[in-house]
Design a protein that fits this description.
319 residues, alpha/beta, TIM Barrel, 8-stranded parallel beta sheet, two-stranded antiparallel sheet, 10 strands
């Protein structure tokens, strides 16, 4: 299977791919193919499966392995494939890393093991063991909202000493923290520094970051690719104009006051846009009719309704 070994640092938009489902733990391969083609055509720099947006911890292990195989086959080496291996078990993370390597992935991404309240010294040991035995380079994934622990700057600095650790994805939402992370480039010029919260993408790139792992790029890849390019060019008027669109898209996530509203809202928007179903991993349920209607209005404002939808036809005066 084709492998894409990315040039380090990896720069651009690396969407955390949603996991399209047709039922409980059943992958919708047709929808996955549609999403992959759309994002690659939109100019993304890579694709990241089994992240938070992909609902990875809620998927059974069989489906995780199936998803990696399917994504690698569909991508066919055109862009690097990153695979999330976060798990409470180091052995499970390593097994998935080996499977990902066999499928042609370029790197793995690992947040701290969840459930047990680990100390920073435990994180150093975990990432060291993972990097020692992984056949693929390792991205550190700072995701305190989900795993309930921040990877400290000291821990990440220690990890720069390991040749098989290649960068960090920061979803902590603190630009001061991210700015301090960037000082580590002095130790590792080959490291990639990516930000998760999409509303911070432009600011992070202006600070010297390499790009974003932005869930909204599942829905509107060109928007985030263009916003990244504007930030690289330091085109402030263009950055401001595109920020309005990013903020509009971000309203999709705020239709319910809960953490899972992000994935729920995104999958709802994707279903309205005709890209995949709004089926989520159990026990999380899809948006109700009222919320769906509000999200449909946002999708319409973004110009992302499928051409044959009733709303699109009405907009064109054909209904």
């Amino acid at each position: 299977m084709p492998t894409h070994h990315f040039t380090q640092p990896l720069r651009g938009i690396v969407p955390p791919v949603v996991t399209p489902l047709t039922g409980r733990d059943r992958l919708d391969r047709d929808a996955l193919a549609h999403l992959v083609e759309r994002m690659i055509d939109g100019g993304v720099a890579g694709l990241f499966v089994l992240g938070t947006t992909g609902e990875a911890p809620a998927l059974d292990y069989r489906l995780r392995y199936e998803l990696v195989e399917a994504a690698a086959e569909l991508i066919a080496g055109r862009v690097p494939l990153l695979v999330g291996v976060t798990d409470p078990s180091l052995t499970e993370s390593l097994d998935l890393a080996r499977h990902s390597s066999e499928c042609g992935a370029a790197a793995i991404v690992a947040a701290p093991p969840y459930y047990f309240p680990l100390q920073q010294r435990d994180l150093v040991r975990y990432f060291t063991l993972l990097a020692d035995e992984s056949p693929l380079p390792v991205f550190l994934y700072n995701m305190p909202a989900c795993v309930k622990i921040d990877i400290s700057l000291e821990t990440i600095a220690t990890c720069t000493r390991h040749a098989n650790i290649c960068g960090v994805k920061d979803s902590g939402g603190n630009l001061d923290y991210f700015k301090q992370l960037l000082t580590l480039r002095e130790q590792r010029r080959d490291w990639t520094f990516l930000i998760g919260p999409e509303h911070l993408l432009a600011e992070s790139v202006l600070l010297g970051g390499d790009g974003g792992v932005n869930g909204g790029a599942n829905l509107h890849p060109c928007l985030f690719v263009d916003w990244f390019a504007a930030a690289v060019a330091r085109d402030l008027p263009r950055i401001a104009a595109l920020r309005e669109q990013v903020q509009l898209l971000g309203q999709i996530y705020r239709q319910a006051d809960e953490f899972m509203a992000v994935v729920r809202g995104l999958k709802c928007a994707l279903s309205i846009a005709g890209l995949c179903s709004d089926q989520l991993c159990e026990p999380v349920t899809a948006c109700d009719a009222t919320t769906r209607s509000r999200i449909a209005a946002i999708v319409e404002q973004l110009g992302l309704l499928p051409a044959e939808s009733p709303l699109a036809l009405m907009h064109r005066g054909e209904a």
